[in-house]
Design a protein that fits this description.
The protein is mainly beta. The chain contains 1 helix and 4 strands, in the order ββαββ. Strands 1-2 form a two-stranded antiparallel sheet. Strands 3-4 form a two-stranded antiparallel ribbon.
């Protein structure tokens, strides 16, 4: 399936950090706990873009 999924999330406090949950979206692109994600943050465009994934191969 090659369709764009649009969603709205609220920023939530996780301990002393801020974050968003997006489990469904992460599962759809094959991400799992422990995977490394490279992102690009653009303050000028107020955007965050996903660049690449390195899957954790540790069992």
């Amino acid at each position: 399936m090659n369709r764009m999924i649009q969603m709205e999330r609220k920023v939530t406090e996780f301990g002393k950090s801020l974050g968003i949950t997006m489990t469904d979206a992460l599962e759809q692109i094959g991400l799992d706990q422990g995977d490394t994600v490279s992102i690009e943050v653009s303050p000028q465009m107020t955007s965050i873009r996903y660049l690449s994934v390195q899957h954790d191969t540790m069992i």
